[in-house]
Structure formats: C-alpha cells, structure tokens
Amino acid sequence: MAARGNQPRVPEAGEKDEPTVAQSTGAETPENADWVSRYADDVIAESERRAPGKPVVVASGLSPSGPIHLGNLREVMTPHLVADEIRRRGYTVRHLISWDDYDRYRKVPAGVPGTDESWAEHIGKPLTSVPAPAGSEYPNWAEHFKAAMVQALADLGVEFDGISQTEQYQAGTYREQILHAMKHRGDIDAILDQYRTKKDPAKKQQKPLDEAELEAAEGSGAASEDDGSGGAGGYYPYKPFCGQCGKDLTTVTSYDDETTELSYTCTLDGFTETVRLSEFNRGKLVWKVDWPMRWAYEGVIFEPSGVDHSSPGSSFQVGGQIVDQIFGGKQPIGPMYAFVGISGMAKMSSSKGGVPTPGDALQIMEPQLLRWLYARRRPNQSFKIAFDQEIQRLYDEWDKLSAKVADGTALPADAAAYSRAVGVAGRELPRTPRPLPYRTLASVADVTAGDEEQTQRILSELDPANPVTDLDTVRPRLDKAEAWITKYVPAESRTIVRTEPDTEALAALDEQGRESIRLLLEGLDDHWSLDGLTHHVYGVPKVQAGFPADATAKELPAEIKVAQRSFFALLYHLLVGRDTGPRLPTLLLAVGADRVRKLLGA
After folding, report:
1. Which of the two ends of the chain, N or C, has the fewest CB atoms closer than 10 A to its terminal CB?
2. Are 21 and 334 in contact (CB under 8 A)?
3. Facing residues of 387 across strands?
C-alpha cells in the first residue's frame, strides 16, 4: 500500500491528479502535526472535485457479529474526528455508519452471556435472523450488539447516520446495482482473478501484542469471505439465503440476464429454487462487490480500512477497481488504521466476554479521555487503552495537558488533540466540575469500598481551604475511578486497612523506627491535608537525618531516598499489612487521624 508523504505528490506528465487511497500519514513534522486537519483538507478538496455543493460524505462499517470492541471503535473515531473538523469549518457532513447486519453469522463468540453451543445451528444465517442472547431485550443478535455501541457513541459525542444493510437489501434499495453487477459478472470475475493467486508478500508485520489486538486483526471476517467464485455454473457475485434453512450455504446454478431468473441449490439441505432477481430480496452481493457498490451508491469521499482489508487482493484493493470499472464511482480516500491494544488484558477475567468494548472503557474513564486516546495518535500508529494501573498515569498526563491548555503553554498539536477530545462542533461534552486526580479518587474508592459517607469525609479533608462539600462536583470522574477499582483491580491488590494494631511489629521497632513514628504523629494534625501530608511524610526521614523538612533533593545525600522508602514500607506494613499501597498521604486521609494513631501505637 502506498505511503503518504509529508507533502502532496506532484503528478508526472500524463498522470491524473487523483489522491492515493489507503494512505498513511507518514512522519509528523511541525507543519503537519495534526493529522485530523490534514485529512480534513484532503477530504474537503476531494469532495469539491467529486460532488461540489453537496454534503461531504464519510463512512464507517461495523459488523454486529458479537461485542463491538475498542479496535472497531477506530473504524468510527477516525472518520468522526475528520468529519467533526470539517463541521467546525462550516461544511455540512454526513458520517454514515453501515451496520453490516445482513452479513452471515460466522461463529459463536466465546464468553457472551446468554449463549451456548446451540447458537452454532444459526451459523450461515444473516445476523438479524439469529436469536439474541438469552435474556436480551432486543429482537435479534445484531440489534443486541448494535445497542451497546449506539449508546457508547452517544456518550462519546459521535453524530452519525446509521444504515442497516438488512433493511437496505430487504427493501430492494440496491436492486439496480445488483442487476448491474450480475450483468457484468464476467468483468468482476476478471478483476478478482487478477488477485486470486497472489499471496501477501513477505513483510514485517505489526506484531499483535495481546488478545485484543489478535481479535482486532481478525476483523469482521468479511476480508476473507467467499468472493462468489467456485460454483459449477460459473461466477456470480450474488449470494441468496436459502428459502428453507435461511442460510447462505447456497450455490447459484444459473442466471438469465433478460428475465433475471436465478436458480440456486442449498448445499446444506438440497433445497432448490428459481426466483426473479428483479423481485427477489433474500440475498446480498458478496463482500468484495458489496463494499465498492456502496461507495458509489452513497458517494463516500473518506473511509478508513483496517489491516484485514489492506493486503493484496483484499476488499479495499480490489474494491478500487470494481467501483471504478463496474459502478462508475471512485474509491474513498482514507488511511489504513493500526491495532488498538489493551493494557491489562492478562488480568481480566475471560468471563467478562473477551476483549473490552467502548462501553467497558466508558465505565472506567470519561469520554474525553477515550476520545483523546484516538485523537492524539495518527491512524497508522498503534496504541493501548489501559484497564490496569496505567490508567492512572494516563489520567495524570491528561490533567497536565488540561493545565497546559488552560495557561497557553501546550504545543499546537497537543492543544488540537485536546480540543477534539473535550467536545465536538458546536458543543462541549459534559465534564467533571472539579476533576480531582484520578489516582487520588481511586485510592479513596479502594480504601472506603465505595462508602459515600467515608468518601465525603476524606475528600473534604484533601484541601481544607477548598473542601469538597458535594460529591456531585467530583462526578462522573469519581464514579469511573470506583468502577475501575471494583471491576479491574484484582482482589489481592486491593487495600484492606488493619482493624487492630500489629503489636508484634510495633514492639519489634528499633529506636529509629519508633522515632520516625513519633515524628509523624507529632505533626499529623498540623499537616492534615493532601499537600500537607505529602510534605510531612517525605519530611520525617529528612528531619531524622538532621536536615530541614523542606530541604530539596539537591541538598540531600542519596541515602535519604533509601530512608524514605524504608519509612514508607514501615507505614504500609503497620496500616495495611503490605509493603506497598495507595499514595501514603491519600491513605492517611482515608484511614483518618484517630485510626492512624491507634494503628501506629499511640
């Protein structure tokens, strides 16, 4: 696949000035650091060439064949961000999401509640003809999995026009295109035949690092779907669903261009039928013809493609020829997007239903953070979404960026990604009024086990000069942190505060240990705030060594850091029975001054 350079390529003599498709954005430089703006430039220019005066059309495709995971979200977020930038410039944009719910049901996904091996009997049927998991409120399999994604997209601020391919095909919307494809089946077969013997050349692949990436790499399965060849009666780009079993295990045996009579046989049950394709709506074009047909029908200008659609002979490459030579349209411009991995998958229970979905991510992080993760990386850059301790570092990074944007010191590309994360054209997404550090909220949620009264007490003491008086001011971030602690922090990593002092450990303390505890307790009340306790716990070992509590690192010998680590480990052991835990200032506030004194032997 051609790589996109930093500057537009000037066509040579005799060449058409047309954009290269499936481009990557190349290396960032100061003049093109914001990939979203650069694609918006390209898309606006291309739309004005192809369809001047009409709305700009960008597209995504999702197959609700199971839980729609975070890798699939890149299929939506890439055109969404570009469409949003174009809207900000005053243009009318349609972001189409094609629900490929007329695709065949290929397999029973592992770990989906309410399903068992009996669902395998529906393999080969359209997704909208497969029963929803037991207990679902939705009428079929496709609607069940679409619903969760629709809710997540609403929370993320993604505006789109959804198109059900079941509805399109069953309403006869594509009848003219189907008849046209059947009439030109020989030409389509010749295009496909150019690639049937080609193998993907040996090249360095991105190595999938975890289960999420492996599932993302597998894609919807459409990339490897039957292209319509192999039938004894010749090549046909149309696949009927059997009138008896409802599955697509059919072979077209004949077709008459004049009468549009089509005959097929089901290889599963032997059922045969002759229908008039000019009236028949129980079937669809094979994927490698269906996708380019829709590009032409919808006038799509921009659509990204995943790695499963980008190898030689794949849907995207073949589609470029088919849309041009068969349907008289043009292939969209757009990048190939890379894997989205998951940090913390190894510790996530398989009972959660496999790789996490956007809805799962939005339980533990605010929409702005999730949008930012997609906006700050070019589509051809892989990245990971954190479900482990890394989420705390990501939130720290986000809060630092927020502060830089507020004071005007953020780099232009970082400020652009921030702007795209916090809102869409014309509105900002709802945000936490008082965004306390995520790691602080997580520590409080860990120690209190979600007890609202205790949470309120601790948060009110973080900053006595500006106490939290209403938990709603720290929501929804507080709720996200509580959900992360509850759902994704393993039980063995949770913090359980001792109920009684460890008398043996206290009795065994040497003189230095007893003195450090005395100094801590002596200054507890005077430093009872997050900042105060931070200064105090770091200051105790300094004072013990004969230095001022506010001495800087440059003024101190290296041994002080060792002494601080030993002091912290002692406090953790006496308070929670482990050598580590939440940040000590937060832990002390969470435990409360009276209980700290009791556990430390005062």
Report:
1. C
2. yes
3. none
